[in-house]
Design brief:
The structure is a single chain. This protein is α+β, with helices and mostly antiparallel strands. It is built from 23 helices and nine strands. The strands form three sheets. A four-stranded antiparallel sheet has the order 1-2-3-4, with helices on one face. β7 and β8 form a beta hairpin. α1 (47-77) crosses α2, α2 runs parallel beside α5 and α15 packs parallel to α20 (500-511). The longest helix has 31 residues, at 47-77. The radius of gyration is 32 Å and the shape is elongated.
Amino acid sequence: MKAISEGIYQRGKHGTKYVRRRIPADIRSAYPASQEHIVRSLGTADLREAKELARAELTRIDTEFRLKRQELDLNRASLNPKRIARLDDEQLQSVARFWVHRVLLNDDRSRQEGLDDTEFDELGEKLASQRAELGRMLAQGKSMNVFPALHGFLHLCGLDFAPEKDEAKRASYAFLRWVIESLDYQLARQRGDLVDTDKVAPAPTHPLHVIAPERAPANPDAPTWEKVFETWRDYVKDRPTPTTIASQTPWRDLRQFVGAQGVSMPGEVTPELMTSFAHYMLDRGLQVPTINERISKVRAIYKIAVGKHVLKANPAANTLGFKESGIRQRKKRRLPFDASDLATLFSSEVFTQHKRSKGQSGEASYWIPVLMFYTGARPEEIAGLALSDLCRDAKSGWYLNIVDRPSDEDGELFEDSNVPQSHRRTLKNAMSIRRVPVTQELIDLGLLRYVEWLRARGAAVFFPTLKQDFHGKLSGSFSKFFGRYKRAIGITDSRKVLYSFRHCMKDLLEAAGVPSKYLQRVLGHTTGDGKVTDGYGSDVPFNRLSRYFSRVQFPAIPALPWEPGHGTVSLKDGDS
């Protein structure tokens, strides 16, 4: 199956959509040994409809997980039951509510899986017969007939109920009333009435928490991993999908790691477990910066949960990551392309023979490296450019306006509201919004001709063929192509990547004597005046930035002026 959206997958020639959810480690034993996931078809190939259906289906899966967890809790509790002789009214109520909730959850599950005509008729006859029999018992005061069922259920709950005769009769009478109520709800469903389990029998506290809390299983009302993550995600309205996915990865890894240690809830994670998790990542071969970043993300998730009073403590608050020696850091540091690399790259077939990626990159094969070289912008900033982002200032000339794209709700506030939703990017941070001068070299290479060529074809963006990847990145596919392409033409140093163009720009700006404040703004960083100062007033004067930028002496590159691609590059290890 191919992942196409968060929690939604696709397979088959018709593109049928599915939901897929990993079975939590703490309830894996409730499923067949070989089963690690729950997969359910959504019965549609339409993504928008699938997203709507997925929410309901994932809720049903969560309900199933909750039921399985309760079943396992009951099984564990029954291994060492506590002997009791009496249940007060509150305790009886807790047992009865737990019974009704479990009965209705089981009924939910069987109906969701589907009943054929014979099964439906047999179920209806069984429920009607039981209701008549138990109703007669209640009317005749023969409640002791259900005592064996009450005793057996309490044993499953971890309680050995051994009452005197009068207490047994009192408890059985109360229990019988609740059993009849659960049958009435099931019969209503049999008639086609809507009976919502969570409304008529909300998830109750496990009876042991009320009767013998010292032996109780994990509190089912404790915040789940999903609840804590959703609290962090929703703290920032419309949090970008790439940011959400980036934090999901370490959160999921932590859950799996502590689950193997017998910890089932995020509130049970200790500082010691967090330290063990850090060493576990190191043993897996993750790089130190990756480990430290993941710890930071987990710490942030817990911090919001504590601040929102979902959890009481942040076990990652003081978790230490790892430090590398300066020598090792320098060995791994990204490097700029040198003059030889630039000559190799820009004399290759994409830039001199007008060949293109055979995948979705198309004209991006030519323009993204060229634009990054002459602007120092990030790959995603270039990939998401709209034609309206190319502007002309009366005094300073052409420039690229690098801005956030509006959402659907805000589209009417922007002149470029015709930009397709797929290209409405979110920048890395507020200081990434800026204007970058367009050099004469870019114009000589045909940038203005390229824009007119796109307009003639009805495009609104620079790279209409690019599609967002699973992480919501427009530049994802091109970045993979570029990595393979630069290796194929002989640039094999792993420290030289697409981002190396930004390092090139930084070196060129420094060589031109551009003041630090203006250098930082070209690259989309803060000015260096401090967080508070950067948050007030207007940006650095653009006319002055343009004058400084004009000092940059770009090395000549052998790329020929742009022409529409004709032919594709051939890479030994494939294309994207």
